[in-house]
């Protein structure tokens, strides 16, 4: 090829690539790709146990995933199309910072209407060696109990699945760490899972006693003589339900799902709170939990529930970063409007970049 022809060909390729990039940008804005196609996510590295880790065994021989092992760290999360990108980043962060990643079993709860086979394929493609189970949660379980809240995303039935973990997970699973899908860990989850719950406590979570607890309930609640005494003789503090250690055996024995449902039924008759699934947890458990160090839930990084503005970390060490609130890091990164702390989430994002070529 002559020099002049080579130059023209080179300019043609540059022009063609510019047009292609612009076309892809328009296409992605008008026709966003399904977040559930397995090939849209990269395969994560495989992580191995250190030599000090025990080998988990399946005492109950229910399946090959050793789902009932007492030696495993059991982690529960919800799984859906809207948040699967966050879920996969969270899973990667848990594995990457664990000293015994092969001893972690993930219990993933999905809506019964979701395509479970596609969800399984997506997770398996990025984490071929992951020990996990997918459970179905029927929307009808809570459909008649949900009241509208200040943000529509909080009204999703799957958001209430955490109240039913004791019913959803196998009876042999005695203790679980529940995690939201909009967080990453930068520390070993085994440290959190080993939180001692004492002789009779059901739940452990970071408490925030400097928060204005009264704002989580309506004036109707506080003006009612019987309801306002709910927290009498309890040092009730706010805690975020996105990170919890739960004793499922004690939960089942105490019938705590029923107790939460009773407050949800009351909410339908007389509006006593505004914020989704959190207030019923506070009504049942606030002042009765084991307090965990704040490093395990640096929450609120997604801003408030209305605008999702940028926020800084709380003072102190960090083991878990949580983008609770309206602003999610993957949404802000895609919109080219990231907050500074979103850069800490980005390395765990398994979504393939444009023009990604599999090796």
Automatic annotation (TrEMBL):
Keyword list, A-Z: Glycoprotein, Glycosyltransferase, Membrane, Signal-anchor, Transferase, Transmembrane, Transmembrane helix
TM annotation in the entry: 7-27
Keyword DNA damage among UniProt keywords: no
Membrane topology according to the record: Single-pass type II membrane protein
An example Gene Ontology CC term for this record: Golgi apparatus
Protein's cellular compartments: Endomembrane system
EC number per UniProt: 2.4.1.-
Gene Ontology MF term list: glycosyltransferase activity
Biological or metabolic pathway of the protein: Glycan metabolism; pectin biosynthesis
Cytoplasm as UniProt keyword: no
Principal localisation: membrane
Enzyme class: transferase
Family membership noted in the UniProt record: Belongs to the glycosyltransferase 8 family.
Name of this chain's protein: Hexosyltransferase
């Amino acid at each position: 090829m002559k020099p002049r022809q080579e130059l023209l060909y080179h300019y043609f390729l540059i022009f063609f690539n510019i047009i292609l990039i612009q076309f892809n940008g328009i296409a992605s804005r008008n026709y966003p790709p399904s977040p559930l196609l397995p090939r849209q996510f990269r395969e994560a590295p495989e992580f191995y146990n250190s030599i000090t880790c025990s080998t988990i065994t399946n005492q109950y021989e229910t399946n090959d995933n050793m789902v009932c092992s007492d030696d495993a760290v059991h982690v529960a999360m919800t799984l859906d199309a809207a948040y699967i990108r966050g879920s996969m980043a969270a899973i990667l962060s848990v594995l990457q910072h664990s000293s015994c990643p092969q001893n972690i079993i993930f219990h993933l709860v999905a809506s019964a209407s979701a395509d479970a086979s596609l969800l399984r394929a997506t997770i398996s493609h990025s984490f071929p060696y992951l020990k996990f189970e997918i459970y179905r949660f029927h929307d009808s379980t809570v459909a008649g109990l949900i009241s509208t809240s200040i943000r529509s995303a909080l009204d999703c039935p799957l958001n209430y699945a955490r109240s039913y973990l004791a019913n959803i997970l196998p009876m042999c699973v005695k203790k679980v760490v529940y995690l939201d899908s909009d967080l990453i860990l930068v520390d070993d989850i085994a440290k959190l899972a080993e939180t001692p719950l004492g002789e009779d406590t059901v739940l452990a979570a970071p408490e925030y006693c400097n928060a204005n607890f009264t704002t989580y309930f309506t004036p109707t609640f506080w003006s009612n003589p019987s309801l306002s005494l709910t927290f009498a003789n309890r040092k009730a503090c706010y805690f975020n339900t996105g990170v919890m250690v739960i004793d499922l055996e004690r939960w089942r024995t105490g019938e705590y799902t029923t107790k939460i449902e009773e407050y949800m039924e009351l909410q339908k008759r007389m509006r006593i709170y505004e914020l989704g699934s959190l207030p019923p947890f506070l009504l049942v458990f606030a002042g009765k939990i084991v307090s965990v160090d704040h490093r395990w839930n640096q929450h609120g990084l997604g801003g408030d529930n209305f605008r999702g503005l940028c926020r800084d970390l709380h003072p102190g060490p960090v083991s878990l970063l949580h983008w609770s609130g309206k602003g999610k890091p993957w949404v802000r990164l895609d919109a080219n409007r990231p907050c500074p702390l979103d850069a800490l989430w980005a390395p765990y994002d398994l979504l393939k970049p444009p023009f990604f070529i599999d090796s």
